[in-house]
Design brief:
By secondary structure, the chain is α+β, with helices and mostly antiparallel strands. It has 3 domains: 96 residues, 2-Layer Sandwich (Uridine Diphospho-n-acetylenolpyruvylglucosamine Reductase, domain 2), CATH 3.30.43; 124 residues, Uridine Diphospho-n-acetylenolpyruvylglucosamine Reductase, domain 3, CATH 3.30.465.10; 231 residues, Vanillyl-alcohol Oxidase, Chain A, domain 3, CATH 3.40.462.10. It contains 14 helices and 20 strands. Strands 12, 13, 14, 15, 16, 17, 18, 19 and 20 form a 9-stranded antiparallel β-sheet that branches. Strands 5-6-10-8-9 form a 5-stranded antiparallel β-sheet. A 4-stranded mixed β-sheet has the order 1-2-4-3. The radius of gyration is 23 Å and the shape is globular. It starts with 10 loop residues before the first helix and ends in a 23-residue tail after the last helix. The chain binds flavin-adenine dinucleotide. The site of flavin-adenine dinucleotide (FAD) has 32 residues, from strand 3, helix 4 and strand 10.
Length: 523
């Protein structure tokens, strides 16, 4: 096994730094054996071999004071720290750092739920708090509040929101519904944002902006600080909740459907994060690929149509829900039903209409009322466990929905992959969530997945569809999409990075932001 060291740091210095860090967090919370306790810090889903991102060490800190002390050591020895909360960012790099030799700063043990306020509907949590944990806490205490969770319930409230993640209730945009942060800057300075900057304030978790520039966004999807606390609004349990699914027979229905959906979303008639699953997505959650197709090559359209019939689904299947007073919900439903069934062949399903063991309906129904679960994670078993996600965004129009689907389907099929996708509608935009699934043990499949991913970004850029998240491998490629005005955005990020983190110790390369003085590799 080769030795993994941070770039430019001598072995003796690295050992001296680790000795100091062990004194800070306790020897039991520093991991440094590539063949042993560092194995959980590898990502087995991406298109590069896991060892190419082997950390030199992982540090599990338990408090703000410990993180501050670790920062001091990192500044002294110029150690690159790759920070996260739960480390479940699978499909984007999971628990691995961007490059081999980085130190992972794992904040899973900082998992206190510091406050839940039922009267005003919010919580304040630390970075290690998962959806499961917060949900369970609310249930145990009997709070009449819902959380909003990503599909994998083991994700973290803070990590997911910082990555601009999304869920399925009306509070689906997690960063939008966050309110107030506590951040450690690279030099160990503690900062509270918004109203939190004012000692004794009563509305840190209630009003986002405080006074002056709104800086919270700088600490999302970047590397300007370490978030140690974050507030989130929690939705009061509504008197009525009406989940629904409507199925559509033809692949071409996606265009008209998106045009029907837009005014319903813009006017907030349907308030939640709406998902339109292609049959491939629905099937991959419920079946293994080999159960559905045993011939070489991609699954052909004809077979997808059969699969839709076998699962009693459409080629597209929309999941949404209504919330509010029972009378209002019923009245609104009449309009929603009328609109969503304007497409010939549309079939409506409500609570109780699907078989009791319908895994697809059951987990979606839970997600739309914020009950975390792991059902959707089944889909990573589709073809061996390799998995790259892409989320190109466009205006919510039928033209974009149809065009994106056609473009990316052609691309994936050409590279030998099934087009596993869903389209998700938020306030005025839509994303086409494309999943490149491959067998990571197959070198040829890895290379095709990588080539497909790079071409996907190029096509998206050509058509003006901005990618929103990046797997570790494609951070620079995706940052390059946003190169308007002479690359002004990257230049501003660079200035901020160098000013706030002069030693370049915080997550070098995250979202394509590298310290100016970085001399190491950029993979
Ligand atoms: C099958 C499948 C389904 C998925 N469904 C969804 C979905 O419905 N919605 C969705 O949003 N995502 C989804 N994802 C993507 C991903 O799994 C989730 O977003 C997950 O919640 C991210 O992991 P995490 O919450 O543990 O975040 P982490 O891995 O802890 O953090 C993510 C990133 O945020 C930054 N970060 C985290 N904590 C801090 C901190 N304290 N300070 C500074 N930076 C920090 C780091 O850059 C880190 O890499 C899905 C993935 C798969 C494979």
């Amino acid at each position: 096994m080769p030795e993994y060291l941070p770039h430019g740091v001598a072995r003796e210095d690295f050992q001296a730094a680790l000795a100091e860090i062990r004194k800070i967090v306790g020897a039991a919370w520093v991991f440094s054996d590539p063949e042993g306790d560092l194995q959980p810090y590898l990502d087995h889903m991406s298109a590069v071999p896991p060892e190419t991102r082997m950390p030199s060490a992982a540090i599990s800190a338990a408090s703000v004071a410990e993180v501050q002390a670790v920062l001091q050591v990192a500044n002294q020895y110029k150690l690159p720290l790759w920070t996260y909360g739960n480390g479940k960012n699978f499909a984007y790099g999971g628990p691995a750092p961007k490059q081999a030799g980085y130190l992972v700063l794992d904040l899973k043990r900082m998992n206190r739920i510091l406050e839940v306020n039922e009267e005003s509907g919010y919580c304040l949590v630390e970075p290690g708090v998962s959806y499961f944990q917060l949900y369970q806490h609310l249930q145990e205490k009997g709070y009449k509040l819902w959380i909003d969770c990503a599909a994998p319930g083991w994700g973290g409230m803070i990590g997911n929101a910082l990555e601009h993640g999304a869920g399925y209730t009306p509070y689906a945009d997690h960063f939008l519904f966050s309110c107030g942060m506590e951040v450690l800057l690279a030099d160990g300075q503690l900062l509270r944002t918004g109203m939190g900057a004012m000692p004794g304030n009563t509305s840190w978790q209630l009003f986002k902006y405080g006074f002056g520039p709104y800086v919270d966004g700088m600490f999302s999807q970047g590397n300007f600080g370490i978030v140690t606390k974050m507030g989130f609004w929690l939705m009061p349990v509504p008197p009525a909740y009406k989940p629904f699914m409507v199925t559509y027979e033809k692949e071409e229905d996606i265009g008209p459907l998106m045009d029907i959906l837009r005014p319903l979303k813009m006017n907030m008639v349907i308030q939640n994060g709406v998902v339109i699953e292609h049959i491939s997505y629905s099937a991959s959650v419920q079946r293994l690929r080999k159960q559905l197709w045993d011939k070489p090559g991609i699954i052909p359209d004809e077979r997808w149509r059969e699969i839709a019939k076998e699962l009693d689904l459409g080629m597209w299947n929309i999941y949404g829900a209504l919330y509010g007073l029972p009378e209002n919900v019923e009245m609104t439903w009449q309009m929603v039903q009328h609109e969503l069934t304007r497409i010939p062949g549309a079939k409506v399903y409500l609570q109780g209409d699907r078989p009791a063991d319908d895994a697809g309906w059951n987990y979606r129904e839970k997600l739309m009322r914020g009950e975390p679960n792991m059902t959707e994670f089944n889909l990573v078993n589709w073809d061996g466990g390799g998995h790259l996600n892409f989320t190109p965004m466009a205006a919510m129009t039928g033209k974009n929905a149809a065009e994106m689907f056609a473009l990316f389907k052609e691309l994936l099929n050409r590279h030998g992959f099934d087009m596993i996708c869903e389209e998700v509608a938020m306030f005025r935009t839509m994303i086409t969530l494309v999943m490149i699934m491959f067998d990571p043990r197959d070198e040829d499949a890895r290379q095709r997945a990588d080539a497909c991913a790079r071409e996907l970004v190029a096509i998206a850029k050509q058509h003006g569809y901005g990618e929103l998240k990046a797997n570790l491998t494609y951070m620079d490629t995706i940052a390059d999409m946003y190169d308007g005005q002479g690359g002004a955005l990257r230049k501003v990020n660079q200035v901020i990075k160098d000013a706030l983190d002069p030693n370049g110790i915080l997550s070098p390369g995250k979202s394509g932001i590298w310290p100016s003085n970085w001399t190491g590799p950029r993979t």
